[in-house]
């Protein structure tokens, strides 16, 4: 009974679900969107972290159907919230490198999002830096098509990958997510302060938006607000929660 064989049956057995973590605008204090994060709940194995099963899913190719399930479910959820509450909610979805290298990935994304009715400008696609290191013509073409279709392209865990910055010029990137390893030391750690300020300055100069990840304290939030970061995501506002709980952030306007 291996993790792999269990994972192969997880989708059909409805063992995968999404949690949603609010993203809060630092000026208005309103929840403007959510990051969708996949969870695996198996009867025998219990709750398995994506850190443990996403690498396996990537290895055996299951990340393709799992990724499509995540994209469809997240976009449908955002569209339902939109219809129910007459408010536009941005939804962020993680795309793995294995998904992006599929020849028909752009067409797949367009078809899936279209089938949910969600306006394309409300989907953010999160990519890690390592995905963009190939500098291939194919990746460039795909990201340009996705960008021209109206999706937001965001770099996850910014600053922790291979730190060549040339891809920032090459690709149509809209948002940088400041990695939580930098946020965690704010506002005391001089290195984290310097790095965070540098990332914010970089994003401003390149006309990109900023999301700070892993915001856990009021002091971190205040630092980020003072330094003109746009959006905060972290346990201070909420852990990733099930859809019904996430909806409360829309109702309460946070
Ligand atoms: O939610 P949590 O902190 O447990 O997520 C752990 C890791 O799993 C993070 O790096 C996150 O980006 C990744 N992850 C969560 N959901 C998805 C998903 O739907 N697709 C991919 N590719 N990665 C995900
Ligand atoms: O790699 P990625 O940035 O997608 O990972 C998101 C992960 O970060 C999720 O597993 C989520 O549970 C976790 N996370 C979100 N907010 C916080 C936080 O405030 N503190 C910590 N330690 N982890 C967080
Ligand atoms: Na992410
Ligand atoms: Mn991240």
Automatic annotation (TrEMBL):
Residues 1-254 form the EAL domain. It comes from the Bacteria. This is Diguanylate cyclase/phosphodiesterase with extracellular sensor. It comes from Methylotenera versatilis (strain 301). The chain holds residues 422 to 675 of 684 of the full protein.
